[in-house]
């Protein structure tokens, strides 16, 4: 319970109490914490005090707050391998986690620098497909992928149905593809990415810029993927 007049803010005492409960496994990874009204009643404080304590726990990475759902204990980090053959679902499956990609939307555009990565003319039409990567029911990545629209005119529709880039490529007769290069950086998320990943805008993400090529070395896909920084650990695999 909290001690008023102790010189330590009440909200901070509540945060430390909940943090101790999490560290002592009273709440398991991924488990939902009691609601704000329940915690307010337990500690005999108002909901604003609980909200401030939860915000501090979220900033420390112990919990995540999902709008409209509640507050959950942050899961253990997922080791995500970045190598010659980077496959989202296979990466998660190797750790006993079910995962898939979900398409959010697509647009046709022209972008000279991206077209250059794909070996196309500056004015070539590109297909931009936005996706989220899910581990169980949790979004762990938000990404945008660029393709030659003439080569892959219905990629967005295929990924929406198959939830796998590899399966879509197989539909186009591409049996294998490899990662030519990856560039990994840390960054702060945009408001939209923070919303998709269910995290504060002030918490860094891991960003991976990459280019995939087919068996003949021809560019297939330029991507920018943003991972939840405290839920995903990127491992550079030695499989070149």
From TrEMBL:
GO terms for biological process? negative regulation of DNA-templated transcription
Q: Single GO molecular-function term?
A: DNA-binding transcription factor activity
Tell me which residues make up the HTH gntR-type domain.
8-76
Look up keyword DNA-binding and say if it applies: yes
Q: Which UniProt keywords apply?
A: DNA-binding, Transcription, Transcription regulation
Concerning InterPro entries, the annotation shows:
Bact_HTH_transcr_reg (IPR050679), Chorismate_lyase_/UTRA_dom_sf (IPR028978), CP_lyase_PhnF (IPR012702), Tscrpt_reg_HTH_GntR (IPR000524), UTRA (IPR011663), WH-like_DNA-bd_sf (IPR036388), WH_DNA-bd_sf (IPR036390)
Q: Which domain of life is it from?
A: Bacteria
Question: What's the protein name?
Answer: Phosphonates metabolism transcriptional regulator PhnF
This protein's species is: Achromobacter arsenitoxydans SY8
């Amino acid at each position: 319970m909290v001690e008023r007049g102790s010189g330590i803010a009440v909200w901070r005492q509540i945060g430390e109490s909940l943090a101790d409960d999490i560290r002592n496994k009273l709440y398991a990874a991924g488990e939902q914490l009691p609601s704000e009204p329940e915690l307010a009643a337990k500690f005999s404080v108002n909901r604003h005090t609980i909200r401030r304590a939860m915000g501090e726990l979220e900033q420390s990475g112990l919990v995540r707050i999902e709008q409209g759902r509640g507050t959950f204990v942050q899961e253990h980090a997922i080791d995500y391998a970045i190598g010659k053959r980077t496959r989202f679902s296979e990466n998660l499956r190797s750790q006993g986690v079910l995962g898939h990609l979900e398409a959010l939307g697509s647009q046709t555009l022209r972008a000279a620098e991206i077209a250059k990565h794909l070996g196309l003319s500056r004015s070539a039409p590109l297909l931009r497909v936005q996706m989220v990567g899910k581990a169980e029911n949790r979004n762990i990545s938000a990404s945008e992928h660029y393709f030659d629209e003439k080569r892959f005119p219905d990629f967005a529709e295929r990924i929406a149905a198959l939830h796998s880039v590899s399966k879509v490529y197989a539909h186009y007769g591409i049996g294998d593809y490899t990662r030519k290069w990856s560039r990994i950086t840390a960054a702060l998320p945009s408001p939209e990415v923070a919303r998709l990943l269910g995290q504060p805008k002030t918490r860094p993400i891991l960003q991976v810029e990459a280019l995939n090529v087919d068996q003949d070395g021809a560019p297939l896909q330029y991507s920018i993927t943003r991972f939840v920084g405290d839920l995903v650990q990127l491992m550079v695999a030695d499989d070149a």
